[in-house]
Amino acid sequence: MGSRSSLLICVLVFGVVSALFTGHPESAWPLAQIDDYLLNILIMAGINVILAVSLNIVSGHTGQFSLGHAGFMAVGAYGSAAVTQIGGKAILNALSFLGGAAPTCVFVLSLFVGGSLAAVAGLAVGLPSLRLKGDYLAIVTLGFGEIIRVVIQNTEAVGGARGLTGIPSFTTLGWTWGLAAFCIYCVSALVRSTYGRGFLAVRDDEIAAEAMGVNTTKYKVTAFVVGSFFAGLAGALYAHLIGYITPEGFSFLKSVDVVVMVILGGMGSTLGVTVAACLLTFLNELLRQAEQYRMVAFALLLIVLMILRPQGLLGGIDRWIQARRNRS
Amino acid sequence: MAPSEAATEIVVGEFASLSGATASFGQSSHKGTAMAVDEINATGGVLGKKMRLVTEDDQSKPGEAATVVRKLISREHIVALLGEVASSRSLEAAPICQQAGIPMISPASTNPKVTEVGDFIFRVCFIDPFQGTVLSKFALSKNWKRVAILTDVKQDYSVGLSQFFKAHISANGGTVVSEQSYSSGDKDFKAQLTAIKGTTPDVILASGYYTESGLIALQSRELQIAAPLIGGDGWDSPSLVEVGGKAVEGSFFSNHFSVEDPAPEIQAFLKKFNDKYHEQPDAMAALGYDSAMILVDAIKRAGTTEGPKLRDSLAATKDFVAVTGKITLNAQRNADKSAVMLEVRNGQFKYVETVAP
Q1: Measured between beta carbons, which residues in chain A are less than 8 angstroms from residue B155?
Q2: Is the dihedral of CA B244, B245, B247, B252 positive or negative?
Q3: Does domain B3-126+262-338 have CATH number 3.40.50.2300?
Q4: Which of A102, A166, B108, B237 is the one with CA 20 to 30 A from A68?
Q5: Is this complex's ipTM strictly greater than 0.90?
Q6: Is A288 in the B-facing interface, judged by CB distances under 8 Å?
Q7: Looking at domain B129-255, what is its CATH homologous superfamily?
Q8: A26 CB within 8 Å of a chain B CB
Q9: What is the pTM of this model?
Q10: A283 reaches B (C-beta below 8 A)
Q11: B112-169: pLDDT as tens digits
């Protein structure tokens, strides 16, 4: 058991506690005093954690630079919204025997559909493109991300450029952080498994790994599909938080935001990117006071951090913890 | 909020795209709104209290609007919300306001879906179907029956405008001979224009924003297409002429108001705006100003800032004389008001006619 499991426990406890106490506005518990604004930031932080941790499995652990994460998020968002918004009534009626639990079931179904569709998209994109390396792969994933966005933009059934409105707001703090914990657990467990050794081998030296008989394409595609699945989940949570999605929201810039979180947190460090995702979400809000200088301040902070800690905020921390453990 | 504070001021929230892709629209509408609030406070405020405008920037980014609106509601305890220009961001804010019971007035979101969100959501501008109808009626009055449509598929506004224009003109004796599309940021429209040229239209609808429309005009003249161009309020920017030059001469577009209109309220607004900011107001500034003024009028009539009462009072707005025309809020909480047609002549936007709803 390492830092990851303790992190996981923290996230789980936080998720359960917040799920219990934020649902009731009249509750006397201090946590219930969280206002709508703070709640929104906390949920956004959770969504960003899922995005960053899932990209980390592709970029950090497997070393494949992807710029198409927002595209998979879009697939998840639209896929899940299609279930709850377009098919919502029909599915609710079909599930009416469940009584009060029916909306929750629809939401779970939509999350699953969103994640699975994103995983399928990840497979479709990954199979041909992961034979490429480095810059070429970055360009291909960027291209695919944009293709996904443009296809949605021109699909009238999901609103086209006008976006999809009226998505029910199912996303809660508990769901978000619960899924964040699930995501962290899956990624940690995967990285520690045989598969994870494969990922790391591909990252550290692809040629050597191939020479040792590691099926590099298989490992790369696996990492990509898992990453896409969680990006799809994040998209589904986002869609049911904001209630309205447009293709514009899943542009290349969104992918870059996630890449920044991963690089800032430290490539390959799950703890690092989790902290970075939370930090950047909160920083974005704290800097609101700076008004028009906000983005300047934000960029400056990033530059300073990158100069002081080029390996990322907590890059190498896992190794450090491991080393300390071994000594004692 | 402490009760003593509540007694001395009325806090109104505003969210606008002060930075990012549509910063020019957000800044314009903000200037108009801020001027209206200053003006109200200079004349003694509302209900004996000063009005305080709290503005948040949403960076023209999806997702940000929802966050800043939640902040305004839960941290600033606003009584009403003004904004946004872009329909996509108004659509993010509307469900939040509806749920919180805070009336929201959008100055310039023309997508019909915005006010469909609920009974707390209003707007002071006309909607896409109306603008599409105005343009179609105008084309038919000029006897332009064969129309070509060029849509910016990346902009929900352009898609909507083209759709409603097509529906009206097809039902009223016109024919759509060609439908072409592009994406914001494109620079070369020759392929689409060549296809359009082959169908010999009487007029071309370029329903996107000014930058692309200016380029479209330029390239259509290069291809020797003689048909005039028409467009919507997205053309309203000096950049249209800067980009299009001579090619946009003789083109027409619909807008919310004209600075040439001799009506006293428009001329007074022009003078005030010029004195304050030393520049000409555009339609967004006028709409931003109107949104604040309509809110003030409703607060005065309601005699309170309580959400449900303020909503009822807003819904009862009738024949309010605003800068952008006489505004009546209808049952769908949209503004019933006139549009103006403008012609580009000698690099300026000349008033042609007013089209009643």
Answers
A1: 161
A2: positive
A3: yes
A4: A166
A5: no
A6: yes
A7: Response regulator (3.40.50.2300)
A8: no
A9: 0.85
A10: no
A11: 888 998 899 999 988 888 899 899 999 999 899 999 999 998 888 888 899 999 999 9
